[in-house]
C-alpha cells in the first residue's frame, strides 16, 4: 500500500497540525474559542474560563441565536463569558461594531477590561492586532472592527450601526427603554445580534427587561434562566449560610433566585400570595398521570383520575387563542382542594376550549362549571350550551357564566371575594396545584398600588390559571357527589341559585 502524506508526518508534526486546525476552528466559532480563553480570577491571576454545564449551554445559544435574553443569579460567570464573546466577535467578524451597554460608567470600564485582559492572554495566532491609540471605553482593531462600552443613557448608541449589542444587567439601567429603542432598528437592518441579560431587579415592576423575557419566545428572543445552583459546588448549605449573613434576606433571595418563579416574583410587599407558601407548594408539583387528547386533538392533563362520589367543581378563564393569554379549565376536588385535571393552552380559541372542556368535564361526572363571561367567555358559554352541557353556573340575574366585576371604591364585588377567598385558601394550604406552569402564575399576582391594590397579574405575566382555580373554588358549595348528578334535569339546577349569587352583589 502506498504511503500517504500524513503517514510521513512525525508525531510532532501531527500535533502541530492539530493545533493549527483548532486555531482555525476557534476563529470561526465561539464554542471552539472558549478553550483558549483565560480570565482574571481575583486573588489568583489568569485562569482558564470555566466550562460549567450552564456556560456550555450559553456558548451554544450565543452561537446559534440572533436575539438572546437571559435571567440569572449573581456571580455565575455570565458577564465574563460575554466579555470573551464580544472579543471573539470583534476579532473575527469583518467590519464588526460591538456595543456594550452597562448600568454605569464604572461597569462599562470593567467589562472592557475583561475583554482586554482576555485578548492579552490569547495565543499569538488568536491575538488580532490592536490599533493605537486605545482607551478604556473602546478597543479598536487594525482590521477596523471596534468594541465600544458605554453606560446606557437616553442617547447611547444613537447614530451607530452595530453588528452586536450586549446590554448587561439590563434591569438596572435607568434608560433601558431609550437605549433599546435607539439600537434595535440598526441591529435589525444589519441582521445583527442582540444579547440582553440581567438579574431581575426587586425594585421594578413590569420593566422592559421583564416584559421581553416573559414574552419570549413569542417575540423572537431565545431565553434562558440560570439560577444560583447553576454554578457547580453550590449547595443548599452554601445558600443558607450566605443568606443568613445578608442584612436583607428577601433581597438576597431576589439576587440569587433558584427558579424563574422566584426571579420574577414581585416584591414581597406587592405580592398577593405569600411567596414562601408558594415555594413550599412546589413540592406538590408533579407530571400528569395521563395526558389524553380531546376535542380537536386538545391535550388535557389528568393528575387524579375521576372517582365516583367525589365532589368536583370546574372553572374556566378564556382567551382568544392567539398565543398571549391562556385558555384554562380546571377541575377541583372541592373537599381536598386538589386540582384533579386541567386544560392550559395559549392557542385554543373559545369554541375549541368549550369542546375540549365539555368532553373532559363529562368524564368527571359533569360538575358545576363556572365560565368567566368577560370578553371571549361568551363564545365558550354559547358553545357549551350548544353541546348541551347540563351544569353551567347561572348567577343571580339568571345569566349563564361567572361575571368578574369590581365595585368602585369598595371591597365588594366578585373580584374581591374571589381573590380574597383564593388567597386565604392558598395560605392555609387548602388548595393543591400540581401543574408547574399553573402554579408559576400565582407567583406573579400582585396588589397593584397604581390601581388601589387591585389584585391582578404583574405587567407582562398572566393570572388566567389562578382565576380559573378561584372560580372553581367559589362554586364548591354547589358541588354534588359526581355519581348522583347523572340524569338530573339541568333546568332544576338553575333554581335556587339567587341566594348564592347574591353574596357578590
Distance between the termini: 96 Å
Strand order of the largest sheet: 5-6-4-7-8-3-9
Task: Please give the largest β-sheet.
Answer: 7 strands, mixed
User: What's the total number of strands?
Assistant: 18
Number of separate domains: 2
CATH level-3 fold name of the largest domain: Rossmann fold
How would you portray this structure in words?
- By secondary structure, this protein is an alpha/beta fold.
- It has 2 domains: 17-235 and 242-264, Rossmann fold (3-Layer(aba) Sandwich), CATH 3.40.50; 280-504, 2-Layer Sandwich (Nucleotidyltransferase, domain 5).
- The protein contains 18 helices and 18 strands.
- It has helices at 11-28, 30-33, 53-64, 78-92, 105-120, 176-190, 208-215, 236-244, 249-255, 260-264, 275-281, 350-363, 377-386, 414-427, 436-443, 464-474, 490-494, 498-501, and strands at 38-41, 45-48, 67-72, 97-102, 138-140, 146-151, 164-168, 193-198, 222-226, 293-294, 298-299, 301-302, 312-317, 327-333, 339-345, 368-371, 445-448, 454-457.
- A 7-stranded mixed β-sheet has the order 5-6-4-7-8-3-9, sandwiched between helices.
- The longest helix has 18 residues, at 11-28.
- It is elongated.
- The relative contact order is 0.09.
- The model is unreliable at 408-412 and 484-505 (pLDDT under 50).
Amino acid at each position: 500500500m502506498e504511503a500517504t502524506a500524513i503517514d510521513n508526518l512525525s508525531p510532532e508534526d501531527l500535533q502541530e497540525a492539530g493545533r493549527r486546525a483548532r486555531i482555525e476552528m476557534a476563529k470561526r466559532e465561539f464554542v471552539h474559542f472558549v478553550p483558549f480563553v483565560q480570565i482574571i480570577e481575583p486573588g489568583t491571576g489568569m485562569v482558564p474560563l470555566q466550562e460549567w454545564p450552564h456556560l456550555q449551554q450559553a456558548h451554544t445559544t450565543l452561537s446559534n441565536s440572533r436575539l438572546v435574553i437571559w435571567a440569572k443569579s449573581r456571580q455565575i460567570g455570565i458577564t465574563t463569558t460575554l466579555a470573551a464573546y464580544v472579543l471573539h466577535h470583534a476579532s473575527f467578524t469583518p467590519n464588526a461594531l460591538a456595543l456594550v451597554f452597562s448600568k454605569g460608567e464604572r461597569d462599562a470600564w470593567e467589562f472592557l477590561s475583561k475583554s482586554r485582559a482576555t485578548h492579552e492572554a490569547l495565543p499569538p495566532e488568536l491575538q488580532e492586532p490592536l490599533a493605537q491609540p486605545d482607551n478604556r471605553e473602546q478597543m479598536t482593531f487594525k482590521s477596523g472592527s471596534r468594541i465600544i462600552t458605554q453606560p446606557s443613557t437616553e442617547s447611547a448608541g444613537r447614530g451607530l450601526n452595530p453588528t452586536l449589542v450586549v446590554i448587561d444587567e439590563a434591569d438596572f439601567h435607568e434608560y433601558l427603554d431609550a437605549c433599546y429603542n435607539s439600537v434595535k432598528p440598526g441591529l435589525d437592518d444589519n441582521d445583527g445580534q442582540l444579547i440582553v441579560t440581567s438579574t431581575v431587579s426587586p425594585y421594578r415592576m413590569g420593566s422592559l427587561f421583564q416584559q421581553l423575557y416573559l414574552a419570549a419566545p413569542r417575540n423572537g428572543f431565545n431565553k434562558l434562566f440560570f439560577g444560583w445552583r447553576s454554578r457547580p459546588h453550590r449547595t443548599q448549605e452554601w445558600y443558607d449560610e450566605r443568606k443568613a449573613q445578608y442584612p436583607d434576606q428577601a433581597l438576597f433571595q431576589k439576587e440569587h433566585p433558584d427558579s424563574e418563579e422566584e426571579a420574577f416574583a414581585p416584591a414581597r410587599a406587592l405580592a398577593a400570595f405569600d411567596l414562601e407558601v408558594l415555594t413550599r407548594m412546589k413540592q406538590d408539583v408533579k407530571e400528569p398521570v395521563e395526558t389524553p387528547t380531546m376535542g380537536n386533538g386538545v391535550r388535557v392533563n389528568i393528575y387524579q383520575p375521576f372517582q365516583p362520589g367525589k365532589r368536583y367543581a370546574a372553572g374556566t378563564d378564556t382567551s382568544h387563542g392567539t398565543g398571549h393569554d391562556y385558555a384554562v379549565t380546571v377541575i377541583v376536588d372541592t373537599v381536598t382542594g386538589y386540582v384533579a385535571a386541567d386544560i392550559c393552552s395559549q392557542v385554543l380559541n373559545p369554541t375549541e376550549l368549550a369542546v375540549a372542556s365539555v368532553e373532559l368535564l363529562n368524564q368527571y361526572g359533569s360538575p358545576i362549571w363556572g365560565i368567566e363571561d368577560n370578553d371571549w367567555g361568551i363564545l365558550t358559554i354559547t358553545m357549551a350550551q350548544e353541546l348541551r352541557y347540563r351544569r353551567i353556573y347561572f348567577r343571580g340575574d339568571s345569566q349563564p357564566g361567572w361575571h368578574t366585576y369590581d365595585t368602585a371604591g369598595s371591597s365588594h364585588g366578585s373580584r374581591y371575594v374571589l381573590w380574597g377567598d383564593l388567597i386565604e385558601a392558598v395560605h392555609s394550604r387548602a388548595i393543591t396545584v400540581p401543574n408547574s406552569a399553573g402554579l408559576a402564575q400565582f407567583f406573579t399576582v400582585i396588589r397593584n398600588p397604581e390601581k388601589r391594590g387591585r389584585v391582578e397579574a404583574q405587567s407582562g405575566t398572566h393570572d388566567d390559571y389562578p382565576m380559573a382555580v378561584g372560580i372553581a373554588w367559589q362554586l364548591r358549595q354547589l358541588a354534588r357527589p359526581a355519581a348522583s348528578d347523572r340524569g338530573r334535569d339541568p333546568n332544576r339546577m338553575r333554581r335556587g341559585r339567587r341566594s348564592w349569587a347574591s353574596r357578590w352583589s
